Amino acid sequence: MFRLVIQAPEIATQNLKQLTRLSGAHSIEAIHQQAFRLQGADISNEEAVADFCESNQLDFAFIPEDTSVRDIGLVVMDMDSTLITIECIDEIADMQGIKSQVSEITASAMRGEIEFKESLSLRVALLAGLDESALERVYTERLKLMPGAEAMLKGFHAAGAKTLLISGGFSFFTEKLQTRLGLSRTIANVLEIENGKLTGKVLGDIVDAERKQAELIKYREELGLRSDQVVAMGDGANDLPMLKAAGFGVACHAKPLVQREAPYCINQVGLDGVLNYFI
Description:
Blueprint: E1 2-7, H1 13-23, E2 27-32, E3 35-41, H2 46-55, E4 59-64, E5 74-77, H3 79-83, H4 88-95, H5 99-110, H6 116-125, H7 133-141, H8 149-158, E6 162-170, H9 171-181, E7 185-194, E8 197-203, H10 209-223, E9 230-234, H11 240-245, E10 248-252, H12 256-261, E11 264-266, H13 272-276
Parallel strand pairs: 5-6, 5-9, 6-7, 9-10, 10-11
Antiparallel strand pairs: 1-3, 1-4, 2-3, 7-8
């Protein structure tokens, strides 16, 4: 059997009762004011539950009843627009006065319209000549954690899970976040800098969708975990292979393509909503 986790900023009692009927659950338990678990739910009626939740702006997830937070050994996250609220490359571009050009390419890549490696090369090339101090300005002035990020990480870390931040963005930011948040491992692209200025190139291989999936599998095997002990979170098309490789792949405030294909979705609540699946 499953527990059906329902989350939203506000949840009407009548909606919980209707979902209990739709799912065949036998009891309703409050996780907190914005999250409830319906125990003994039948996943065979998932389509009706999904339709009801979409109509009423509720997040939902069917989670095996015997799965707890202690069972999760690895949490893998995208960075831009997932762990943090911004796309770092767009904000760097803003320092160069070309944010609209770069943002257009970013959005197209995240929708899956152009290949990620190509899109990143195009965007980084536009940054050539920018002073490296712009990176620090973006971090200190613009970078903010996604709501619920710290609570989510605290909960998984306390239960013993390792964390991997893997990004098609830049190591300048992932390394700072690793120190700030106590992340186990980070992987990202390295911007080439010469004489204090960006050259418009990336050093080494670009972190793309295939690399994200491969690194998740590599770390999972290194830790001796099963797929159902891995959680992954992302928002863009280049996150989909990674999300599908995890036992619990969550599209977080994601692009429509990603929401359609990801196993789980969160739209109404913060990243702590992922932790609520398991507590």
